[in-house]
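Weekly structure sync, notes
Attendees: PL (lead), two postdocs, one rotation student
Agenda item 3: pending single-chain targets
PL asked that the sequence for the first pending target be pasted directly into the notes so everyone works from the same version. It is reproduced below exactly as submitted, 104 residues in total.
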Amino acid sequence: MKQVKSNEFQMEVLESKVPVLVDFSATWCGPCQMMGPVLEQMSAEYEGKAKILKVDIDESMDLAQKYQIMSVPNMIFFKDGAPADAVVGAVPAAYLKEKLEKLL
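Predicted structure, written out during the meeting:
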């Protein structure tokens, strides 16, 4: 799963032709670490259909502020360059897949 920085966000997320799930997380966050393997697996599963990317809120504070990230993990689903849905906290993969499928 690719980690994107602020300077890549426009191209990787906002200009993406496919839906994007962005995982706003932090290295010090336990639930974020728990979601890592789940999102890695989903990234492989949805390759070519959707993108799953990670943003470290400590490295990209501007993005965290722009999208009003108050707690992590915070996963925002983007479609056609705009936020379409969001999930806060550690959740089962099935829940994320259900939301992502609606955007495909």
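Discussion points:
- The mean pLDDT is 97.
- The chain has four helices and five strands.
Action: rotation student to compare against the earlier draft before next sync.
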